[in-house]
Amino acid sequence: MLVSSLKLHDLIEEIRGAKTQAQEREVIQKECAHIRAAFRDGDPMQRHRQLAKLLYVHMLGYPAHFGQMECLKLIASPRFIDKRVGYLGAMLLLDERHDAHLLITNSIKNDLSQGIQPVQGLALCTLSTMGSAEMCRDLATEVEKLLLQPGPYVRKKAILTAVHMVRKVPELSDIFLPPCVTLLHERHHGILLGTITLITELCQRSPAALRHFQKVVPKLVQILRTLVTAGYSTEHNISGVSDPFLQVQILRLLRILGRNHEESSETMNDLLAQVATNTDTRRNAGSAVLYETVLTIMDIRSAAGLRVLAVNILGRFLLKSDRNIRYVALTSLLRLVQSDHSAVQRHRPTVVECLRETDASLSRRALELSLALVNSSNVRVMTQELQAFLESCPSDLRADCASGILLAAERFAPTKRWHIDTILHVLTTAGAYVRDDAVANLTLLIGGAQELHAYSVHRLYHALAEDISQQPLVQVATWCIGEYGDFLLENCEETETLQKVEEEEVLALLEKVLQSHLSLPATRGYALTALMKLSTRLQGDINRIRQVVSIYGSCVDVELQQRAVEYNTLFQKYDHMRAAILEKIPLVEHGNHQAEAAAKESQAAAQLSEDKASVPTEPQTSKLLDLLDLLDDTPGDTQQPPTLNPCPVGGLVHLLDLPCAPPPPAPIPNLKVFEREGVRLNLSFTRPPGTPPLLLITVTTTNSSEDDVTHFVCQAAVPKNFQLQLQAPSGNTAPARSGLPITQLFRVLNPNKAPLRLKLRVTYNHFGQSVQEIFEVHNLPVETWQ
């Protein structure tokens, strides 16, 4: 006998009244058993009630898969109440992963052709929610017919279903092109908004559709002008802005149609200026329309005055109290700073004010934009503002701020002394957060500025005396004291505040660094080497230095122990050579190493071509005679030993068994595999002579844009019959304007000499955005695998 189950209202009350989760599970399990029994033996006229309860259970997160077939039965029912619950169940319980969803294709097709609008609406909603690619191909023709039906209710849902079909199956785009042009003349808000959305999807997925709809730009301009001037309807007026949702969609479509198209851009220029000047931005609706207008102006080929107007609008956004609007403005200005640098520079004071925001996301965007605005004319002012921000900024921003200041100082420093002062300030404030190359860059800078040796060592000594916790600062200071410690014994002419110090004070400070628990092993190595160099710089007794060095001869750190043992040996056995070994390093020229390397490479190539041109060409017969002369023992002639030359073609050399070197392998040409916004990846190939199956691939990443590339990661994959080993890259940051490139070595072992296939994944941050590209490298040279 069938036990009566609860009604939906009673089931909801009982579940909500359960005091524990165990009680809730008990109620649901009991009711699911009743629902199964009702599906099997119950009244077919009441099945929609049982399925409605099952759908509620499904929304609570409990399994309800046993109701999938009941959905199909209810959809096939002629009663509307059954179809309504059946279609709702199909949208909730079915998806592309279940083969059962294909069984409702015929039911949907029949309902679409019935002509009953409520039923057609249910079928279209279900198709747009869970329609698979196969269903979209089978039902595209029926949906196209409904696009031009007289009733707006069905047409609106058919348009949204067409959007889903285009996303699922882009090749169906051609079917929906003709109806869209007709639908643009509609006055119904829902139909017009859906049509604009459909055209946008078509243009993004089909170049042919993009060219087709560029002809309707005047019609779109007319619609938007009507919205701005006369209004559309009071029903869709929000905060004094006429139909902002429709305006935003039209502006997005105009941005796609006007990109890299001169004629379309000229058609919409006047309209964009009108929207930008007449839109009220006191409410969010107006700000949204104005923001889309700015994006459209920046993406199309707009006039220069219009682009300046767009930047000024973003500048006004920065003055608003709404943090979301200010964040959007900062992000947009960061994208525009490279193309419209002078226009963005006018809003520099407002951007700097945003650095003081308590919101972390706002201050991070303001920091990125402030660093992008630094140039040679404002580097002193901007660096001062950034240094003030560095002292109080959150810890998660200190690394980015410190690295940005160092890069800006290296690129735009007006004088070497200012450059050194700036780096010292960063090291003193946030030394633990600077990049790994900060120590090497500062030592290189100081080493190349002979006139600032005394000033630098005095500044670093007093900074070290105040704080020995910042390890990069301690390393630079100890290196400088070791090299130029003799200047500490004299007054510094550069500044009156830094007076000379005594030898005992210098040695005591270095011993303090060696004994401090804050010092890293590398820092202790710097300090021990500095003490050793001071043994030739200072004039006093060096026994104190001898004692300290001998103590560390038994240090547990192997590197420090090795240094101490070598220095002790230098004291004991080679004391006469100590002054020469520990003399000051020569001046270092801090230039553009990349340019110098390129010049050397071009010079070597030119010399090689000259050498090739100077080699005389002889006929093959003369070469043969020369080879035969080597066997002739004519007296009186001084014979030279034969040189190892590449073997000429032919078998005579093998018969004579003359010494012959194998020809050098031909160089493998380089290959450019990726380029985007100034970021370029080049592959260079090398085969070690001793291991032919091994291929060495050097990935060189360069950045010619105006913004640094950070957090760069390059990963590779090869087929299973290859062996791939990725070496560590030289860094993860590629400085802007063709700075030091990032290099990484791939070792590929190909024992079967199969054709090489390589897939790369590149991720990095650029212009404030995260970029990820996955691509397969085609057209690899044949020499890489043969």
From TrEMBL:
GO annotations of cellular component type: AP-1 adaptor complex; synapse
Compartments (UniProt record): Cytoplasmic vesicle membrane; Endomembrane system; Golgi apparatus
Keywords, sorted A to Z: Cytoplasmic vesicle, Golgi apparatus, Membrane, Protein transport, Transport
Topology relative to the membrane: Peripheral membrane protein
PROSITE patterns: GAE
Pfam families to which the protein is assigned, alphabetical: Adaptin_N, Alpha_adaptinC2
Top-level taxonomic group: Eukaryota
Gene3D superfamilies (UniProt xref): 2.60.40.1230, Leucine-rich Repeat Variant
Main location: membrane
The GAE domain, residue ranges: 666-781
GO biological process: intracellular protein transport; vesicle-mediated transport
Record-stated family: Belongs to the adaptor complexes large subunit family.
Protein known as: AP-1 complex subunit gamma
Gene giving rise to this polypeptide: AP1G2
